[in-house]
Amino acid sequence: MGFLGFLGTPLGYVLQWMYDLFGSYGWALIVFTVAVRLLSFPLQIGQQKNTARMAAYRPMIEEIQKKYAKDREKQNEELMRLQQEYGYNPTAGCLPMFVNFFIMFGVIEAVYYPLQHILHISKDVLTQIASILNMTYTYTTNTAIIQMVQKGTLPAEASALLTPEQLENIKNFNVMFMGMDLTVKPELAFNILLLFPVLSVVTMALSNIIIMKSSGQEMQGSMKWMPWMMSLMFVWIAFTVPVAFSLYYTVSNVLMLITSIITRKMYDPEKMKAQVAAEIEEKKKAKKAKKQVKVVDEKTGEEKLKEVTEAEMNRLRIERARAIDAELYKDERTTPLNAKTGEEESCEK
């Protein structure tokens, strides 16, 4: 997984602790997934709140895009003004997605190399063993070593590279769950190994649909098929990684479905639309409201109170600032630096 799997090592220690607690690789993954979802639930609440608020701005955004369809610069200016004046923030709620993204690849890294990340056997040692077995060091090497040690068929030369404690840990490593070896890669054949890969794809599609509905955004045109297209793309991942990841992802998606229903009840998009619309209306009224300010009468020079809008207030402030600058710098030389003074001309003569 390279850089994307940088969380594999720390997550491996968490999985090891849970494995030691439950004595089962499968249950360790399930409890780990539940813990991750519980810890990320506050972030998901914030994401739902922000997403529901963003749905309220959708009509305003579409109006700007339609009005300035041929003027991209003006369109960006209006969207920026929308952000500044009414709190529209297109990046709100992105943090939970990034967190889930990095955790997902961290888990893939950990289940790819359980001997390295969960049992903490040196990668150098495992690479040497792979060489003895005439294999390239990949996740299949981890699976092969586990199976050989547990069957007692690992070559003596390879066994010599492992300490007695490491051999014992591998021998007792309980990777079976519901009759499945979680360290192997599923194949497109009718067997028990298909259970979690298929469930992970189906639950992913369902969770995507629920999330889209919870956001308050209607799926139109090709967007209606987006959850299913993403699920089809995920099929490739589900069948190229060990079954352990599909177990993790299935449980994660089921929990996502449950928490999405809860957060939708907490921050219903329709209610948020009404709330945001009321806030926008209040801000518009505040902008139009008249305020009393002191202004100087140009004819008499007397100060008097005048009612102005916020826009007029800003204009008066700019005019006042310009007047102050003009008064402050009125005595400074205004002759261009490249112009010749009378003294310079006499010197030349």
Task: Please provide the ordered H/E string of secondary-structure elements.
Answer: HHHHHHHHHEEHHHHEEHH
Query: If you compute it from the alpha carbons, what radius of gyration comes out, rounded to the nearest whole angstrom?
Result: 33 Å
Q: Structural class, judged by helices and strands?
A: mainly alpha
Quaternary structure annotation: single chain
Q: What spatial form do the alpha-carbon principal axes imply? A: elongated
Largest sheet: 2 strands, antiparallel
Q: Tell me the strand percentage band.
A: under 5%
Unreliable stretches (pLDDT < 50, length at least 5) are: 341-349
Distance between the termini: 82 Å
Count of helical stretches? 15
In total, the number of strands is: 4
Range of helix content: 55-70%
Strand order of the largest sheet: 1-2
Average predicted local confidence, pLDDT: 80
